[in-house]
Amino acid sequence: MRGVMRTNTKIDWHRRVEEAILRIMGALDEPLNFRQISQEVHASPYHFHRKFRELTGENVHACLKRLRMERAMHFLRHSSADVTTIALDSGYETPEAFTKAFKRIYGLTPSEARRLPFWNGVLHSSAGLHYSEHRPAYWFYLNPEGVNIMQTKITAFAPKRIVGLRNVGDYWGLPRVWEQFHQILGQHGLYAQAKEMMSVFPDHADAIPVEDKMSYAAMAVSPDFDNRYGLDEYTIPEGLYAVTVHFGSSEEIGPTWDRWMQEWLPDSGWRADPSRPNYEWYQNHGVPPELQLTFLCTPVVKVQV
């Protein structure tokens, strides 16, 4: 009976924290504080503060501040709003205070960040909770035990048309291919047409010899993209993908893949689908290694019991 009560309590706190997160994400312009939100989810401020931090890895104030800063970066990159307007909308009293906070977090001024060719300014969140105009509201995951685990989200993705340069053989050849691809993108001014930047691995099955494995340095593009540049093309099929987050440089991604497949996959109730590709979906570019964020995506199908 006690076990059932503990389970019900855990589910109830998940529900309350999820409600609080959705409230925060829908009210970034409002002067919210954790006491106000705790009242809205019918919890005492003390218990709400403790549970929110336990399940998300940060307190309400830090979460709200980070989401506003990510939104500010989005507006800098994708709107013509001036820095003063963005600063005030982000909860800062003056553009000077905003610029100081922005530079402390990103190491760049807002004007410098605005000139970067490809970067979305995502900041670390152990719950995968980030600002996005288009991301579904429930794109986050709560950690029920408060431990450091490889957290994973099962997500349905639509087909993606990608263009890029193909690498055949060992994956260590990809950095050279990426250098060539970036030269082409810069030469033809194609960064603005990149919906997503990614490395794609169609031949991740163990049975395929290393020397025959294909991979791509690529970008996702719209269906009407005019590929007049001789780039290789590939379509990532739709379907369910398991997604986890890697923070750090691309040189450290390999061990993260290995750990994820060893720790999460065997007992997950899912199995890898070799008919569709693995891919690394890069969320920022041109930032210090400790701020680089990558979604690792592997195709999965449900294990039939």
From TrEMBL:
<dbReference type="InterPro" id="IPR018062">
    <property type="entry name" value="HTH_AraC-typ_CS"/>
</dbReference>
<dbReference type="GO" id="GO:0043565">
    <property type="term" value="F:sequence-specific DNA binding"/>
</dbReference>
<dbReference type="InterPro" id="IPR010499">
    <property type="entry name" value="AraC_E-bd"/>
</dbReference>
<dbReference type="InterPro" id="IPR029442">
    <property type="entry name" value="GyrI-like"/>
</dbReference>
<feature type="domain" description="HTH araC/xylS-type">
    <location>
        <begin position="18"/>
        <end position="116"/>
    </location>
</feature>
<dbReference type="Pfam" id="PF06445">
    <property type="entry name" value="GyrI-like"/>
</dbReference>
<dbReference type="InterPro" id="IPR009057">
    <property type="entry name" value="Homeodomain-like_sf"/>
</dbReference>
<dbReference type="GO" id="GO:0003700">
    <property type="term" value="F:DNA-binding transcription factor activity"/>
</dbReference>
<dbReference type="InterPro" id="IPR018060">
    <property type="entry name" value="HTH_AraC"/>
</dbReference>
<keyword id="KW-0805">Transcription regulation</keyword>
<protein>
    <submittedName>
        <fullName>AraC family transcriptional regulator</fullName>
    </submittedName>
</protein>
<dbReference type="Pfam" id="PF12833">
    <property type="entry name" value="HTH_18"/>
</dbReference>
<keyword id="KW-0238">DNA-binding</keyword>
<dbReference type="InterPro" id="IPR020449">
    <property type="entry name" value="Tscrpt_reg_AraC-type_HTH"/>
</dbReference>
<dbReference type="InterPro" id="IPR011256">
    <property type="entry name" value="Reg_factor_effector_dom_sf"/>
</dbReference>
<keyword id="KW-0804">Transcription</keyword>
<dbReference type="InterPro" id="IPR050908">
    <property type="entry name" value="SmbC-like"/>
</dbReference>
